[in-house]
Design goal:
By secondary structure, this protein is mainly alpha-helical. It is built from six helices and two strands; from the N terminus they run αααααββα. Strands 1-2 form a two-stranded antiparallel sheet. InterPro entries: HTH_HxlR, WH-like_DNA-bd_sf, WH_DNA-bd_sf.
Length: 113
């Protein structure tokens, strides 16, 4: 690997890193649902319109790997899995509230135009 390639790989913008962690069509609705008290994938499937079970499980797994969620498996029949927010995930919810307020401002601005 050349020195320039190594230097480029080591330059990571924190904002880009954050956006990559929550990019995905369903990640923000998933976090929102868990914040509202839904913990099981079956609850999220009912609450988030048009999400596919495979995609839901994939994005849940990515957020567990990123430290946003924790996964707890219960060894019973039928098998049960629950997800919850980590402290990092709870801080994301605070950011989402601010982003929601900014979105409301954007809507008001576009309605005035």
């Amino acid at each position: 690997m050349r020195i320039t390639e190594k230097a480029i790989k080591q330059k990571i913008c924190p904002l880009e890193f954050a956006v990559n962690a929550i990019s995905g069509k369903w990640k923000i609705p998933i976090v929102w649902r868990i914040n509202e008290g839904e913990k099981r994938p079956s609850e999220m499937l009912r609450g988030i319109a048009k999400v596919d079970r495979r995609v839901l499980n994939q994005q849940l797994g990515e957020m567990v790997n990123d430290g946003i969620l924790t996964k707890q498996s219960f060894h019973e029949l039928p098998p049960r899995v629950e997800y919850s927010l980590t402290p990092l995930g709870e801080s994301l919810v605070e950011v989402l509230w601010k982003l929601n307020a900014w979105g409301e401002l954007l809507l008001e601005s576009s309605n005035k135009s």
